[in-house]
Design goal:
By secondary structure, this protein is of the alpha+beta class. It is built from 25 helices and 28 strands. Helix content is 46%, strand content 19%. The longest helix has 41 residues.
């Protein structure tokens, strides 16, 4: 908020700290001021206030001193100005009605503090997975201890070491570190796509999203007012063109039109450019921009696209002007005209300008105005969500040097009307379609009026064929009814912070994973409550960014769709890592269990060797899966069910089967070497290398969850996997042949025949894993 405010006390103006204001104080507001408290307007002059942070409305609001209904929505309370909003035009005298936490923005702050942030789906699943895995390990360890004590009569000390070995073997110690690294890599990739992640788990949560709730201004639209429709007495034109560049094409009935040959459009463009305080500028890099109020900027761009170029001669010189005022709802300027005459140019609200016009321009002639025609056509354009301005002109005496509202009269000639709106981003339309292909619903929640929201929604292909749900509808619905409304409708208009929060909560009660985007203070409660809160980085407020999990550096909806792509890839890689790590731990645990059950004199693998295998496979092989590229079709899948476990039943079957296979092969190699009279250290060395080889070959099968890995992409598609395989081989050679490692880990050097046996076991694991995936693909295809 502003540090100081102008207050009228004892009949004089004082500058005081805004925090010293009290209810009943009279404050003075002028252009550029930030409103210091909630105030009721007493006296205004052309007052317009930017309220986007509270209502999300894309253009300044013209204020009035007229009373409004007690239950009027926040955006329709035209007789009030709210703390934190900005005066963009005019002046006002107002009385303070609320300060601090009693203001609208203060109430939002209290709401944000009270909103409970839900745990992300990933953390919920990891918690459940951790409890499930820990419980199984504890049960197996207890069963092993009981079996060893009662059935095998082990000493307590020896049995304790066996149980510890089992726990070390079964627990995937590297998983937390690998999971953190995968999420961190995802954060980096998202940053490269203009999505700045503030909370690490949100990286994966994006991949779980089933519904995206988005504001429209700046996210789905360009956040720049643009003139799109021109209506004259004989034709309606559609104007094409992007941004502020003067290049654009006029079309009528779908066909290009040369408006330079149309005298009415040429004159209308002249009025749009000269009865205007905005200026079209071009910087040194050739980029166009507008200096001034957005609506006037749109008219300046329209004039340039129609071919009008303001000159430096007397014909373009402004002699006098009546500035826009909310009570008049028009602006007028005086210029030199043709034949030594002078002309007044007029622009303003259609109903106000129509009341000042007696004629309309048709070609080069003027004829009596057809009010029914203009009202019918303008209503049709307004129903499409456009904001309308009417433009007119009137010749006056050559000696006229000044103009005043009382002398303008009602003899103007109406040239036409211009329809303006904040146009949709073309790339956002594509991103919405891609989100739908991925099974994600997109809902637009905005503070704009219902007509504007419906029009933008239709252009974005959101909520087509259905009327928008308004804030009043939300207030009238109970929690159960709101679930149905939130599920069945996609466009919500004239919404307040409470409405947005209730919509998000209703969707979550419907078991949806919700991403919510926003930029204003009014979005903060819903952003905090959503599973993933997404704030705008360019025009977003600090309150919004603090409540969000992710900030878009470019304020573009397309970045959300790209982030969801990354989130799905990250979840796939997490799943692959778990499915890869657990078979190794299972195989190690199986070897320890076999030693007790079979009453072996020596363990096939020692605790320190188990630690070596866990560390070396996690550091090399498992880490390679963190760099896996996205699988083909990742954005054509439906969102996974929110309650789906991170390891499905199918995944548990795969883990058990691969763990059993690797464990049996490792035990078989141990027994085979021992049967030939080899030492226990040599047999353990062969067993450990067989265990590692099984993991190495299984890594390449794990690169694809279902698709075959015996392809060129499966073998060469991830250079990190090849590098990890080479590094692992080097580590195992050091482990096997280096004297110091032989001393630490009780290993011996192996002969070539041993390595053939080890590699053969690894190939068998790969073939078995690929056969299992082929069976799974066949079963899935049959079910379809």
């Amino acid at each position: 908020l502003s540090l100081e405010s102008t207050v009228i006390r004892d009949g004089r103006r004082h500058r005081i700290n805004a925090e010293e204001l009290v209810v009943g104080d009279i404050v003075w507001l002028e252009a550029g001021d930030r409103v210091p408290a909630d105030v009721r307007l007493v006296e205004i002059k052309g007052l317009e206030v930017e309220e986007a942070i509270l209502t999300g409305e894309s253009h300044p609001v013209q204020k009035s001193t007229e009373a409004v209904a007690e239950d009027a929505p926040l955006g329709d309370r035209l007789s009030l100005a709210f703390s934190g909003t900005v005066v963009v035009r005019g002046t006002a005298r107002a009385v303070v009605i609320a300060t601090g936490t009693d203001t609208e923005v203060g109430q939002i702050g209290k709401m944000v503090a009270e909103v409970e942030k839900l745990q992300t789906p990933l953390l919920q699943k990891i918690d459940r997975f951790g409890l499930w895995l820990s419980g199984i390990i504890l049960l197996v360890a207890a069963a092993l201890f009981a079996f060893g004590w009662f059935a095998r009569a082990y000493e307590v000390t020896e049995l304790f070491m066996l149980v510890v070995s089992l726990a070390v073997a079964a627990i995937p110690e590297g998983l937390p570190a690998i999971m953190t690294i995968i999420l961190a890599l995802g954060v980096r990739r998202m940053a490269n796509r203009n999505a700045i992640v503030r909370h690490l788990p949100a990286v994966e949560t994006l991949g779980s999203v089933t519904v995206i709730c988005s504001d429209n201004t700046g996210t789905l639209t360009r956040n720049e007012m643009t003139a799109r429709e021109v209506l004259t007495a004989s034709r309606r034109f559609h104007v094409k063109g992007e941004g502020c560049a003067p290049e654009g094409q006029f079309e009528s009935e779908g066909q290009p039109v040369d408006v330079g040959a149309d005298p009415v459009v040429s004159e209308l463009a002249r009025v749009a450019a000269l009865c205007n305080d905005a200026e079209l500028l071009r910087d040194n890099e050739g980029q166009w921009s507008v200096e001034g109020e957005p609506t006037e900027g749109a008219l300046a761009v329209l004039a340039a696209r129609a071919g009008f170029k303001p000159g430096t001669g007397d014909a373009d010189r402004r002699l006098d002007a009546i500035p826009f005022a909310s009570e008049r709802r028009y602006m007028a300027t005086l210029h030199d005209g043709p034949d030594d005459s002078r002309v007044v140019y007029l622009k303003g609200a259609p109903e106000r300008v129509l009341a000042m016009c007696s004629h309309q321009r048709v070609g080069d002639d003027d004829e009596a105005i057809d009010l029914d025609y203009w009202r019918e056509k303008s209503d049709a354009i307004a129903d499409d969500g456009y904001r309308l301005l009417a433009l007119a002109s009137r010749r006056v005496d050559a000696d006229t040097d000044a103009i005043s509202p009382s002398e303008l009269g009602q003899e103007f000639v109406l040239l036409g009307m211009v329809g303006m709106m904040d146009p949709p981003r073309e790339e956002a339309i594509t991103a919405i379609e891609q989100a739908r292909q991925a099974g994600i619903q997109v809902k637009m929640i905005t503070g704009d009026h219902a007509k504007t929201a419906r029009s933008i929604g239709e252009m974005m292909n959101i909520g087509r064929g259905k009327e928008p749900i308004t804030g009043r509808d939300i207030e009238d619905a109970d929690d159960t009814e709101l679930i149905g409304l939130a599920r069945e409708h996609d466009v919500f208009a004239r919404t307040s912070p409470e409405h947005k929060l209730r919509i998000v909560e209703a969707l979550q009660r419907n078991h949806d994973v919700v991403a919510m985007t926003g930029d204003g203070v009014n979005d903060a409660p819903a952003l905090k409550r959503a599973d993933v809160g997404v704030a705008m980085g360019i025009k977003g407020t600090e309150a919004t960014k603090q409540a969000a999990d992710m900030v878009l550096a470019d304020d573009n909806f397309t970045s959300i769709e790209r982030a969801i792509f990354e989130g799905r890839t990250i979840y796939d890689n997490l799943k692959k890592t778990i499915l890869f790590l657990l078979p190794t731990n299972g195989a190690e645990a199986l070897m320890v269990l076999a030693a007790v059950i079979l009453a072996l004199e020596h363990l096939p693998i020692t605790p320190v060797q188990i630690l070596w295998v866990n560390m070396i496979t996690a550091v090399t092989l498992a880490l390679a899966l963190a760099f896996e590229p996205a699988e083909e079709g990742v954005m054509r899948r439906p969102p996974r069910p929110p309650k789906e476990p991170i390891v499905s039943r199918y995944g548990m079957v795969r883990i058990a089967a691969i763990a059993l296979l690797i464990g049996v092969l490792s035990l078989g190699s141990f027994f085979g070497v021992r049967a030939n009279g080899a030492s226990i250290d040599l047999a353990r060395t062969v067993a450990v290398n067989t265990l590692v080889a099984g993991q190495l070959f299984y890594l390449f099968s794990s690169r694809f969850l279902v698709e075959p890995s015996y392809t060129r992409a499966g073998v060469l598609g991830n250079p990190f996997a090849l590098g990890a395989a080479g590094l692992l081989i080097v580590f195992q050679l050091i482990f096997t042949y280096t004297p110091i490692f032989q001393l630490w880990f009780s290993t011996e050097g192996l002969a070539p025949m041993h390595w053939l046996q080890i590699v053969g076991a690894g190939v068998l694991v790969f073939v078995a894993a690929e056969f299992e995936k082929a069976v799974a693909r066949y079963v899935t295809a049959r079910r379809r």
